């Protein structure tokens, strides 16, 4: 039995297996995920596992190594979040998001730090030796909202898009502030004296960390887009480039002490447009599924480890400190959101309602990032106190806030996500509005949001697209993309129902799809179709679609006699009217 | 400061939450465009360099001279517009105010959508026909040199069909759908909150703090 030889990979695989089996287990019992969010269940499983290990070994179970967390478990989740971030609402609300992320986090850090220091002054609690700096350090790691926890909870409650993007964007971007403050206070702890120069250096460092992260991310993103330009003949490894470049951007940023999360997000957002135009459809699907799979596994592992690490002798249970930490976290978050929203609403037409504000404040969940950061603290005699406080805060936010947020959302009747199918018409209208507003801004001489967006688009089409996109492929407008996507979907539906024809003329798919979407399919079946769908044709659905899509473009929708001039009788009718015609049974 | 006051329509406009600073800014801009004349013609819009790259440039300029937008009883196109008319058009893009009630909001929304409707409906017959819709899509996609003309057409046709299914529901055989009327247009835009989207933030923050 050669266990030593395979120990490490074997144990890793076993943990991942446990995580995945736990996930299956939850979804087998249908009602559970709607009441208790998955993250809670996973922590619970972790607690059980930790208890078992503790019972067997009679010593503390393995604590989640901060390196493993930051280098292996966190990047897939953030990459997934950044890649699939809906860029339009994100950039429309970027001002608010940045305000919450930067100013809000700083407010929370100092608020929590100073109030806890105040608590430490009370003699009865026996906390005199926790200095201000230690409290500020603790504040800096506990104040930040955690993207993993937020994602896990908000994914299930489907609030309206704007609210979702505000909380989520904030949780992703506050990493820059957290990194700077944490490192700053930690270095202050080790320095004998602190001069004001150091404080200013800290402020400057914040800009370096944030902007540096963005730059690193964008450069890797554009390099990735450039690389995919040449991958036409080796489609198989195309998805790999997406992951490699993103991970490299994260590691590079961490290497230079910049914000890795901001880097990987900018990389993903920067490269997405060009990479998607360059890679094949299959590669696109592969990228999507792998990303989702990795982030899901990471997510599960993180919560299980969180549970496991809770058990053990790492804690010093000073209950006053812990309770006040929880209370202050809640109070300062609520205050911060109120004050900041007050400012935001003065500048914005689309105000954030008080219900939304409540959800933003209540959705400030803490998670594994705090946990790892607290383990990274230098060993000083009160470290265990901080570990205990962090654990309780995380468990409180994930369990109590995570479980109650859904009933609260229902109770307060918060505006939910609009569940309608995307339509080509809407895309057209939105695009029209964009250009109209850009034009009006040009005419009125006002350099506003649409003006800059227009300028960016112009720069993009003139320079960036020429370099980063493959030569023969045209950059497609979102209207065209959506139309093609819908066409493909309907074509597949028709093919599956055995109604695809190889005959010369047939109505446009969109035509027939809209006709038969709710009506009886037997009507379509009556048209003159060769009902031969050979098995090998079925296998090659892509080819069918390509052939038939092309045919669609050539013939145009076949309306009845009142067709387009130039196709049949041009003299017949001056005006074009839309007529739908079923072939009679 | 040279702002034409006193004429009745302008004072009525002044009460419509276009603040005096904005009017001054727009007046300065008007003078720039008209080269210190009292009226602007279509050619004056050529002097705006950034507007050239806008795919729907033609429609935007046309909208300024469209008599329906200028709240004049007649129909058709004006040859030239003065500052009053310029302001009227710009007022379609003012942001909503905090203290509007339901009825005002509704009227506000309808006004903006009417402006858009006139832009789509180029032959002024009160309906957006298939050809007009095609025209819009072709213009929007004109920035893509590689796109075939037929694709733009089929996209417009598909969109028209969507509109038909929203507005008329399930159509029977041989049913004719003439074109999108204004009521149908309203239905199509229901999902998009135009009150908050269709505005231009002029100049300063005082947009919200009104002074009337």
Tell me what you see in this structure.
The complex is a heterodimer of chains A (585) and B (212). In chain A, 72% of the residues lie in helices and 1% in strands. Chain A is mainly alpha-helical and 585 residues long. Among the domains of chain A are: 331 residues, Na+/H+ antiporter like fold; 62 residues, no CATH class. Chain A starts with a helix and ends in a 5-residue tail after the last strand. The C terminus of chain A is likely disordered. By secondary structure, chain B is mainly α. Chain B has one domain: Recoverin, domain 1, CATH 1.10.238. Helices cover 47% and strands 4% of the residues of chain B. Chain B is built from nine helices and three strands, in the order H-H-E-H-E-H-H-H-H-E-H-H. A two-stranded antiparallel sheet of chain B has the order 1-2. Chain B is globular, with a radius of gyration of 19 Å. The N terminus and C terminus of chain B are likely disordered. Chains A and B meet through helix 18, helix 19, helix 20, helix 21 and helix 24 of A and helix 2, helix 6, helix 7, strand 3 and helix 9 of B. Strand 1 of chain A pairs antiparallel with strand 3 of chain B.
Topology of this protein?
The complex is a heterodimer of chains A (585) and B (212).
Chain A: H1 3-28, H2 32-35, H3 38-57, H4 66-83, H5 87-92, H6 94-120, H7 132-142, H8 147-157, H9 161-190, H10 196-228, H11 238-255, H12 260-278, H13 281-310, H14 319-347, H15 354-362, H16 368-375, H17 383-412, H18 424-444, H19 449-468, H20 478-496, H21 509-516, H22 521-525, H23 535-539, H24 541-555, E1 578-580
Helix pairs in contact in A: 1-3, 1-13, 3-13, 4-11, 4-12, 4-13, 4-16, 6-7, 6-9, 6-14, 7-9, 8-9, 8-17, 9-10, 9-12, 10-11, 10-12, 11-12, 11-13, 14-15, 14-17, 16-17, 18-19, 18-20
Chain B: H1 8-14, H2 20-34, E1 39-41, H3 57-65, E2 80-82, H4 83-91, H5 102-120, H6 130-140, H7 149-167, E3 175-177, H8 182-188, H9 194-197
Antiparallel strand pairs in B: 1-2
Helix pairs in contact in B: 3-5, 6-7
Organism (chain A): Cinclus mexicanus (American dipper)
Protein name (chain A): Sodium/hydrogen exchanger
Main location (chain A): membrane
């Amino acid at each position: 039995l050669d266990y030593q030889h395979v120990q490490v990979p074997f144990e890793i695989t076993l943990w991942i297996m446990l995580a995945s089996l736990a996930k299956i287990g939850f979804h087998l019992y249908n009602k559970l995920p709607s009441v208790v969010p998955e993250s809670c269940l996973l922590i619970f499983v972790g607690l059980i596992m930790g208890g078992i290990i503790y019972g067997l070994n009679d010593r503390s179970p393995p604590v989640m190594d901060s390196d493993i967390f930051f280098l292996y478990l966190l990047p897939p989740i953030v990459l997934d979040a950044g890649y699939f971030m809906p860029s339009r609402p994100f950039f429309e609300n970027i001002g608010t998001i940045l305000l919450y992320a930067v100013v809000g986090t700083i407010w929370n850090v100092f608020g929590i730090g100073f109030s806890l220091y105040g608590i430490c002054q009370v003699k009865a609690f026996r906390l005199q030796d926790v200095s201000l700096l230690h409290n500020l350090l603790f504040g800096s790691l506990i104040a930040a909202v955690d993207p993993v926890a937020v994602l896990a909870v908000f994914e299930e409650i489907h609030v309206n898009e704007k609210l979702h993007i505000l909380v989520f964007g904030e949780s992703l971007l506050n990493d820059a502030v957290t990194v700077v403050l944490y490192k700053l206070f930690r270095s202050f702890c080790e320095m004998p004296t602190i001069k004001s120069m150091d404080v200013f250096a800290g402020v400057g460092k914040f800009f370096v960390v944030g902007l540096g992260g963005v730059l690193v991310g964008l450069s890797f993103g554009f390099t990735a887009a450039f690389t995919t330009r040449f991958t036409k003949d080796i489609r198989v490894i195309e998805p790999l480039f997406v992951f490699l470049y993103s991970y490299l951007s994260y590691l590079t940023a961490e290497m230079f002490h910049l914000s890795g999360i901001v880097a990987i997000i900018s990389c993903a957002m920067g490269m997405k447009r060009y990479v998607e135009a360059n890679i094949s459809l299959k590669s696109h699907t592969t990228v999507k599924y792998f990303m989702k799979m990795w982030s899901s596994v990471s997510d599960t592992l993180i919560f299980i480890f969180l549970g496991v690490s809770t058990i053990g002798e790492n804690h010093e249970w000073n209950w006053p400190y812990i309770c006040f930490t929880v209370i202050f976290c809640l109070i300062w978050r609520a205050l911060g959101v109120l004050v900041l929203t007050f400012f935001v609403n003065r500048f914005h037409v689309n105000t954030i309602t008080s219900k939304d504000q409540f959800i933003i404040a209540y959705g400030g969940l803490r998670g594994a990032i705090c946990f790892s950061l607290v383990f990274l603290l230098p060993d000083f005699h009160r470290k265990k106190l901080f570990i205990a406080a962090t654990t309780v805060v995380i468990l409180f936010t994930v369990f109590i806030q995570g479980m109650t947020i859904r009933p609260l959302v229902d109770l307060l009747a918060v505006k939910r996500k609009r569940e309608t199918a995307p339509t080509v018409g809407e895309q057209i209208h939105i695009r029209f509005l964009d250009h109209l507003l850009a034009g009006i801004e040009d005419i009125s001489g006002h350099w506003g949001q649409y003006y800059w967006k227009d300028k960016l688009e112009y720069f993009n089409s003139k320079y960036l697209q020429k370099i980063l996109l493959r030569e023969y492929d045209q950059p497609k407008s979102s209207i065209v993309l959506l139309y093609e996507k819908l066409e493909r979907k309907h074509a597949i539906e028709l093919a599956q129902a055995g109604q695809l024809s190889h005959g010369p003329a047939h109505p446009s798919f969109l035509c027939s799809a809209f006709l038969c979407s709710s009506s009886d399919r037997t009507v379509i079946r009556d048209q003159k179709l060769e009902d031969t769908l050979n098995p090998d044709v079925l296998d090659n659905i892509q080819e069918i679609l390509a052939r038939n899509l092309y045919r669609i473009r050539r013939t145009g929708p076949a309306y009845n006699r009142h067709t387009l001039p130039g196709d049949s009788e041009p003299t017949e009718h001056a005006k074009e009217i839309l007529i739908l015609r079923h072939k009679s049974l | 400061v040279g702002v034409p006051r006193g004429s009745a329509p302008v004072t009525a406009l002044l009460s419509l939450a276009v603040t005096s600073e904005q009017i001054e800014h727009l007046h300065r801009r008007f003078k720039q465009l008209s080269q210190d004349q009292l009226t602007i013609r279509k050619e004056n819009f050529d002097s705006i360099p950034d507007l050239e790259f806008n795919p729907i440039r033609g429609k935007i300029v046309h909208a300024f001279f469209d008599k329906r937008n200028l709240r004049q009883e007649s129909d058709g196109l004006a040859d030239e517009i003065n500052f009053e008319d310029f302001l009227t058009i710009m007022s379609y893009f003012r942001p909503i105010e905090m203290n509007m009630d339901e009825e005002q909001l509704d009227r506000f929304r309808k006004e903006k959508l009417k402006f858009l409707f006139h832009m789509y409906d180029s032959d002024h017959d009160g309906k957006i026909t298939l050809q007009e819709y095609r025209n819009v899509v072709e213009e929007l996609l004109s920035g893509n040199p590689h796109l075939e003309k037929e694709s733009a057409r089929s996209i417009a046709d598909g969109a028209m069909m969507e509109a038909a299914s929203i507005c008329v529901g399930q159509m029977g055989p041989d049913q004719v759908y003439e074109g999108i009327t204004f009521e149908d247009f309203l239905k199509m835009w229901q999902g998009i909150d135009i009150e908050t989207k269709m505005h231009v933030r002029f100049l300063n923050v005082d947009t919200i703090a009104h002074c009337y």
